[in-house]
Amino acid sequence: MHRPLVITEDPPLLDDLVRIAAAAGAQLDVAPTPTHARPFWNLAPLIAIGADQADLMASTAPPPRDQVLLVTRDPEDPDTWRKCVAVGAQSVLTLPNDERHLVDRFADAMDPDPRSGSVICLIGGRGGAGASVLAACLALRASTDRLRTLLVDADPLGGGIDALLGHEEAKGARWADLVAREGRINAGALQAALPAFGDLAVLSFHRGQVDPIPPQAMRSVLEAGTRGFDLVVVDLPRHLDPSATEALTRAKSTLLVATADVRGILSAVQVLSDLRAHTADIRAILRPGIVDDDTALAALGGWCFLIYLA
Fold first, then answer.
1. In sequence order, which ranges of 145-241 are alpha helices (DSSP H)?
2. Which InterPro entries does the entry mention (predicted)?
3. Are 122 and 75 in a shared domain?
């Protein structure tokens, strides 16, 4: 894969760009002058031209192309927009104000084929209802159908969904390796870091004491997941924490697994009342038990769609 290209001879600006690219999980090709940049001009997914090299770059009449940025550290330079037009850049970014936007642009450049995957969340109506098992089954089935699938364990106290799959010894990143990261995660880097089994990648918790997932970490993972995977399946805890609500706001559908017994239905109704504050498309999956279908529908049907599994 070709890397973003930076054209600058300004050491402080270059230091900033290298740091920003690293935050996006990207490595750079660096050309101090337009002559060095020529071989990369048509190949780089993104080109960031320092204001110090803009006029010299324009004098070489490079062929027009998309994804060219002019980057400056001087917001007061009255010549900035002239340089932008001369070099054929589509926009001007000023550091440090536009740093976060530049992180996103570098990350986009490293994800040339975003998949726009869907997020599905699963949650149990009570403990032991089988939501984690169903999440694992859905992810496995999707991956066997050749959908690139990410299974996300969002329950810190669930024991690790990798253990449910029988792959607790698999090498690869766990949540503890990702929670300290700030900003956007490159989808390709996420795929490469996680344990994978065919088309299924798994993000789980490590063994031992675990900390809650910061909501910004969940947001970064799900954004990378939807760019790099066809389907993202999230196994939620019953007691919603900030990271679980972050996942719910991004869910295309949320599946609530309820058991057809009195406490199971009553508990599921309570969970539903919490879910409705964060997501709209909620569907209940009812496991058979002593409560008949009509009673279960009366309790749950007004809150969501109902799917009955025999």
1. 161-164, 175-178, 187-193, 215-228
2. Cellulose_synthase_operon_BcsQ, P-loop_NTPase, ParA/MinD_ATPase, Rv3660c, Rv3660c_N
3. no
Helix, strand, coil percentages (3-state) for the chain, rounded to 5, are 40, 20, 40
295 with 155, same domain: the answer is: yes
Residue in 39, 45, 9, 13 with CA at minimum distance from that of residue 26: 45
* Mean pLDDT, residues 280-291 taken together: 88
Same domain? For 249 and 302 the reply is yes
CATH number at residue 43: 3.40.50.2300
Domain that holds residue 254: 118-308
Dihedral, 86, 43, 15, 188 alpha carbons, nearest 10: 130
- Taking only the tens place, the pLDDT of each residue in 120-162 is 999 999 998 999 999 999 999 999 999 999 999 999 988 899 9
| Contact (Cβ atoms closer than 8 angstroms) between residue 205 and residue 156 | yes
Token pair of 234, please? Answer: 């999230």
| Single pTM value for the model | 0.72
Instruction: Write the single-letter amino acid at 252.
Output: K
Those residues with Cβ within 8 angstroms of residue 92's Cβ, 6 or more apart along the chain or in another chain: 69, 70, 71, 72, 80, 81, 84
Whole-number mean pLDDT of the chain? 90
